[in-house]
Amino acid sequence: MLARLATKRLLEIRQAFRQAPQASRSLSTALNYHVDTPDNKPDLPWEFSDTNKNKVKEILSHYPSNYKQSAVIPLLDLAQQQHGGWLPVSAMNAVAKVIEVAPIRVYEVATFYSMFNRSKVGKYHLLVCGTTPCMIRGSRDIEDALLKHLGVKRNEVTKDGLFSVGEMECMGCCVNAPMITVADYSSGSEGYTYNYYEDVTPKRVVEIVEALRRGEKPPRGTQNPNRINCGPAGGNATLLGEPKPPPCRDLDAC
Amino acid sequence: MGLGLLASRALRSTRAFSPLNPRNVRTIVSTPELQKPEAAAAVAQPEADLPKRTPVAGARVHLPNPEDAIEVFVDGYPVKIPKGMTVLQACELAGVDIPRFCYHNRLSIAGNCRMCLVEVEKSPKPVASCAMPALPGMKIKTDTPLAKKAREGVMEFLLMNHPLDCPICDQGGECDLQDQSMAFGSDRGRFTEMKRSVVDKNLGPLVKTVMTRCIQCTRCVRFATEVAGVQDLGMLGRGSGEEIGTYVEKLMTSELSGNVIDICPVGALTSKPFAFKARNWELKGTETIDVTDAVGSNIRIDSRGPEVMRILPRLNEDINEEWISDKTRFCYDGLKRQRLNDPMIRGADGRFKAVSWRDALAVVAEAMHQVKPEEIVGVAGKLSDAESMMSLKDFLNRMGSNNVWCEGNGVHTNADLRSSYLLNSSISGLENADVFLLVGTQPRVEAAMVNARIQKAVRATHAKVGYVGPASEFNYDHQHLGTGPETLKEIAEGRHPFCSALKNAKNPAIIVGAGIFERNDKDAVFSVVEAIAKQGNVIRPDWNGFNVLLLNAAQAASLDLGLVPESDNSIESAKVVYLMGADDVNLETLPNDAFVVYQGHHGDRGVYRANVILPAAAFSEKEGTYENTEGCAQQTLPAVPTVGDARDDWKIIRALSEVAGARLPYDTLGAIRSRMRIVAPNLLHMDEREPATFSASLKPECNEKMSTSPFGTAVENFYMTDAITRASKIMAQCSALLSKQ
């Protein structure tokens, strides 16, 4: 009896230890090294589209001709929009060729920023803010609701290729926490939008997802009907009149 | 309170209050007057009382412009330094060694390890001394509690994710992190979480990676980019997920890749062939010279007992700085394979039979006496030292033959003017050149260290490089002007666009490859190159930019000693051929009844045709003089004993001369060197570059015409050029994996 209890306890302890240790928290969608897959290989051809070639020229014109490499971030962003929200290694090589640097210098930048997705994402990439204010206001529940509704894991694409869910650092909407961002890659770099949906609830995010699935464009900004932008719910309670200027600013009186 | 802490406290108190010699007391607080009256007195009258400090590692400072000197104070000691030096360099001059990981004086400054933090007066927080320029009157404090605490804190962070696997790490015992954590780290850590782990990268057959040990100093990334000139490595990811890698699986295809092993301060990049073979404290170091190319890189052979375990570079600013090529570093396993260890005679059945030295020498002497003197031919190999070449020449001359030469020197060997076969600008002098014209040479495979200098010049001053020769790979920007003598003629006649670059250059350098020596129209090619040199004002009293890049370690010394054959087709009529380590000499035209003696250390190409084998010592086993391509004589020293019954080359020839009845008059190395002093005194000026006295303009006019055939490649495979490297397994792996790409 005692022996059985002891084994049981031991198993429990082992179970507790066996749980994967907290890996270093990374918001990136892919590993720090490239693994060849059928849709992501260095020898696949990749080029900027004709309209984007003009945009490339425009972007390069912002920088002196001997500092072309400064354009690496806007060009990677453009390439990502063109390629449906993610950067295959051949796209990074194409950018390296445009700015005349070794490919590794582009890989360094692309792996540094978590906003560059180096593995496939959905047409609508949903990014849940995970920073403290949003977390306190329930961003974990928002993410759980999204993942449960779509039936995927984080950074995994739904079967129809429409949605993927990721996490992001603070995007400065703490006053309207919690919030999600929808990166819309459904219509290429021309119709690319990057909208904030604030004051969301687990129920509201599911509605937003369903609206996107139907091809609608749900109104961006706060989802709380009682609020205007980041004003308080139910209208202003303070600062109702015209603000009085501080007396010392009246320079003529001095 | 732990024992260690108690002990350290006890030590500290005895140190701080030691009444012995106030001069040797180094205060550990920033306000010594509060602690000790003596120290306050010392502060009151500085300079006079301060003991003289010697700079770290004998660092010297050159003040080109005395007005530009500024004075800073390191721990109260005044130091004069030139403007633009960093705080760390000032501390080094003051004799204070600042701990560092990412800083390396031959690489750009990164400032990301933070180990070099020091306190600077009036600065609110510790400053990273490697990246901070020293300002006039700066008061730097390296020994204060603030600096010590900062170092201890940084060390704790570095050790947070560093595995505790020193017992199984090859860097153990020569690890910067190990040493510095002993010196500056805390005796305990507070980190209880899981350590991170990183996937190992495959960088090829030479460099082993254990990326979990990496501390992200980025020295290897900067080395690959700045010195090796291959942009393969990079820093991927961010924060705690940061790692060194190539992103796309890629081998490091640089001929200098082995140097990342030396610059890695931890065990993340170690030598693959040396892995788990030995500990560094078991090894005996012998300072010697590399012979796999004509550069003569300074190396240290680390041996254990009779075995060479590894080869490391030695600092020589004029030749190899502190790098060596992969061929130099990893050829050592060739020294253990395919060695000849007994004298052997080929029997009637075509098989070799081991015999005694007495019998072998008697057979050779008899064969030599049976033929006419002019039918004896001697060929020195590319790895021969000057002493043995001297004795070979003396011996054959005494036998009545003057057909003795060194392989690689080609036809119509011309040894009259030293300037026509030396790298006259000197290897370090190439850094000052602003335009290079490479004629029939691929320095990347012929002399990797010379190529590194050209790369350095291109990177530092945007020097232009023009190249005439077959399509080849370069690791710097270059213009491929053409493939053959046609282009050369165009440049000489001023019809080529590259002419204007040559004319406008301040210090133009022309480098001619020794592969040209093998061409029949070599004199014509050289006269055209000299014409170009004359036009471009390449040879001036203050600058000599006319260079020949030799291929083999023996070449320069053999030409200095006058190993020039009497006739160019002596091989066709030879009856006795004496190969002294010569494996690449073309024996196809040799008559079938010729008697071939092979004296050497490896069973390589020369052995196939040999009738008698005389085993000799390799460069790691003998004392010998080698002259490198710039005319600097250097000496190898024996690191390990010879294998089997092998003997030094000169001793074999000395013994043979006795048996053959033409006794050479020297019995010691010293005696041979006195003989060399008569022929080529510069070979006795060790470690000194002896520039050529007369310029090539004294040459007689050449009326030959250049053929139209394009220049060839002198070195087909960088990793396998001589008997030692051809016997090496590691070099075979390298040429299979790396040369293909």
UniProtKB/TrEMBL annotation, chain A:
One of its GO terms (cellular component) is mitochondrion. One of its GO terms (biological process) is mitochondrial electron transport, NADH to ubiquinone. Its cofactor is [2Fe-2S] cluster. GO terms for molecular function: 2 iron, 2 sulfur cluster binding; metal ion binding; NADH dehydrogenase activity. It comes from the Eukaryota. InterPro entries: NuoE-like, NuoE_dom, NuoE_N, Thioredoxin-like_sf. Pfam families: 2Fe-2S_thioredx (PF01257). Keywords: 2Fe-2S, Iron, Iron-sulfur, Metal-binding. The keyword Iron-sulfur applies. [2Fe-2S] cluster binds at residues 129, 134, 170, 174. Residues 215-254 are annotated as: Disordered. Binds 1 [2Fe-2S] cluster. Transmembrane segments: none annotated. CDD domains: TRX_Fd_NuoE. NCBIfam families: nuoE_fam (TIGR01958). Belongs to the complex I 24 kDa subunit family. This is NADH dehydrogenase [ubiquinone] flavoprotein 2, mitochondrial. The lineage of its organism: Eukaryota, Viridiplantae, Streptophyta, Embryophyta, Tracheophyta.
Automatic annotation (TrEMBL), chain B:
Gene3D superfamilies: 3.10.20.740, 3.30.70.20, 3.40.50.740, Dimethylsulfoxide Reductase, domain 2 (3.40.228.10). Coiled coil: none annotated. This is NADH dehydrogenase [ubiquinone] iron-sulfur protein 1, mitochondrial. It catalyses: a ubiquinone + NADH + 5 H(+)(in) = a ubiquinol + NAD(+) + 4 H(+)(out). Residues 146-185 form the 4Fe-4S His(Cys)3-ligated-type domain. It holds the Pfam family Fer4_NDSU1. The keyword Electron transport applies. The keyword 4Fe-4S applies. It is found in: Mitochondrion inner membrane. Core subunit of the mitochondrial membrane respiratory chain NADH dehydrogenase (Complex I) that is believed to belong to the minimal assembly required for catalysis. Complex I functions in the transfer of electrons from NADH to the respiratory chain. The immediate electron acceptor for the enzyme is believed to be ubiquinone. This is the largest subunit of complex I and it is a component of the iron-sulfur (IP) fragment of the enzyme. It may form part of the active site crevice where NADH is oxidized. InterPro entries: 2Fe-2S_ferredoxin-like_sf, 2Fe-2S_ferredoxin-type, Mopterin_OxRdtase, Mopterin_OxRdtase_4Fe-4S_dom, NADH_UbQ_OxRdtase_75kDa_su_CS, NADH_UbQ_OxRdtase_ferredoxin, NADH_UbQ_OxRdtase_Gsu, NADH_UbQ_OxRdtase_Gsu_4Fe4S-bd. Its EC number is 7.1.1.2. Belongs to the complex I 75 kDa subunit family.
